[in-house]
Amino acid sequence: MKLRWIFLVLTMWLILFSGIAVAKSPYGEMDVYYNDKLLQDTEVVKPLLKINEKFTLRLNATMYQECKLDISLNLINETHFELLDGPADFNQLASKIYEANETHTFEWTLKPTDVSAGDMTPVNIHYMIFMIGAYDPIVNGEFTIAYPRISTEYYEDETPPIISNVKNNDLTNDSVTITWDTNKDSDSVIRYGTTSGNYTNEESDTALVSSHSISLSGLSAQTTYYYIPNSTDATDNAGEGSEYNFTTAATHSTTTVVRIGDVTAVPNGYAFTSIMINNASNLGSGEISVTYNSSVVHVTNVTSGDGNALTVHTSNIDNTAGLVRIIAWDTVESHNDDVVLAIITFHAVGEYPGSTPLSITSKLYDYTSYSRIEHSINNGEFSISNNESPVITDTIATPDVILNDNGRPRIPGTNITALSATVTGSGSGIVNVTIDLSPIGGLDNQVMGRIAGTDVWTVVTTATDGINQIHELVVTATDGANNTNTSVIGLTVLLRGDVVRDGNLNSADALYIVKYLVGKEPMPSLLVSDMAPAEGNGKITSADAFYLLKYLVEKEEAP
């Protein structure tokens, strides 16, 4: 019988026994694999691993009805393992919105670090199921998928690096940059030559990386080169790619070019750009006309540039026709190389996302002979950018009250929360959403991940700071036009064991529990009071008060 981790309605029974498999479920099932082996019944694999010996955990999750599944790979100590690949980092949420009877695969590849040497460390799966549009989960569970014991020996990897994604970049007449990827850290070597199969030259980099880049220079123009990428890992396993080739460009042309730069402005905004003459030789004067769509942009001013520049003698702006004519010269001296002919100021009169070509016609004249200078033209474009900030709504913490995280086990889900926000914007698109988790001990610019197919951005976190406080965690959204907006997500962090809620753990908390047990005080918060056992038992008993007292005399760790 295949292992079926069944999703049941959230109850204390589920929290205590979420690893038990049954044959049927109203929500769905999971098939769980360790290194491609399907685990049976409620089996928890307990392998003996060496340091750096990688392994794979995979879940095929099937949902019987439309819903959203949030799932994370949880560790008590993240430093015990290194995540090589997976849908989200340790203790971070991966989400999937399901259609009825859909199956989706979640897979993580990880390896133990030397921090875990000699230890047994559980690897847990935490999951929550939400009905579409609901804020609270209908299922919240956790189970142990693997309990590896880590030896003190190092794993000697004998597999060579696999080379992929080989590309030729920045190819010129005498240089190229070759990039490729490997599935493990290794060095970088390119062997190359002008005859297929005969590689007479070599460039290398000894740094051990998985993204490789080697630049070749001093090449001959208009020549085909053949090369092979090589990578060798730290244990001398060598991988070699196939033969690739590239052809260098012809020698750079020195043709004179008249160009106008691209311009961007917000609606009703102003911006300017220059008309440049590149590779000029003995330039004396120029006549330039620029046409544009006057329903998108108007020209408001034409001025001379600074430095190596001609002086604008006259200009004629016709915003009805969408045309500006410019004549510029220098009677004192000629100009060479890159010369500024004029600076044009534009006013955006249209709306986002309007745009128009900026098309040039031009005549250039030699300073000495007055003859026409042959040249090419590079036209530009004026674009109206978005100036509307992103809209942030539905900022939610699920749950919005959690226990502090000090490394001691908790009832599954009570020290972890999923922070989410719905972010929408204009055509520029949302490119980044972050949240400031520094008040609760996290990063001040923690990146939130977007749930595929939705406008919801989310991140899963615990809290190691800001205890006994109600926090407003600031969410910042940025769109493709660099417009930003902020909102907040409310989260309360409680100190486990702080029954009287004074921010401290002391005998008063234990006394309150004892007085409650004999009917002298109202029932305290179960979330805060349920300390023994570590995973909780759903009850407030004298064992909880006793544990707290033993902690106060340093016989137990902090609850």
How does this model look, in words?
- The protein contains four helices and 36 strands.
- It is mainly beta and 559 residues long.
- Helix 2 (507-517) packs antiparallel against helix 4.
- It is extended, with a radius of gyration of 33 Å.
- The two termini are 39 Å apart.
Keywords:
single chain, 559 residues, mainly beta, ten-stranded mixed beta sheet, six-stranded antiparallel beta sheet, 4 helices, 36 strands, 49% strand, extended
Rg, Å, rounded: 33 Å
Percent of residues in helices: under 10%
Low-confidence stretches at least 5 residues in length (pLDDT < 50)?
Answer: 1-24
Q: Which of globular, elongated, flat, extended, rod-shaped describes the shape? A: extended
For the residues shown, what is the average pLDDT?
89
* Record field, number of beta strands: 36
N/C terminus separation = 39 Å
Main β-sheet, in a few words?
A: 10 strands, mixed
Total helical segments: 4
Structural class: mainly beta
Q: Beta-strand percentage?
A: over 45%
